[in-house]
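Before the break, one more example. Copy the sequence into your notebook; we will annotate it together after we see the structure.
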Amino acid sequence: MKTKFALTLADARRVAAAAEAEAIENGWSVVVAIVDDGGHLVLLQRLDGAQTASAEIATHKARTAALFKRPTKALEDIVAGGRAAMLSLPGVTAVEGGLPLVYRGDIVGAIGVSGVQSFQDGVVAKAGAESLDDQRS
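Here is what the structure looks like once it is written out:
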């Protein structure tokens, strides 16, 4: 049997705080969604001024990253490369801004960010994702 790590609410709050700090530093109003490894919402945080649609978009980006175990940017690149059939897969949001959350080599959840240009969403998501390993013992 393998020990399975699980994302806690405290972990999700730390990841979201790191993402929020990056967004604020850049003056970006975004929504940050954190899901567990099954794609279920753990935390949703909407910064002041973020468009309301971004709550759904961020959640879908996080869910896609968790379920497909890869950044949503990788799926966006596949579609941009001509493989439009990827869009017919259930649960695919092929837009940058979703990243798996990895702890000790295991995917424990994902972060999704929406509210600015997709590459900027990716910057914010990366800041959150990179904070996870630094915060857990």
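The chain has four helices and four strands. The chain has one domain: 9-135. Try to locate both features in your own notes.
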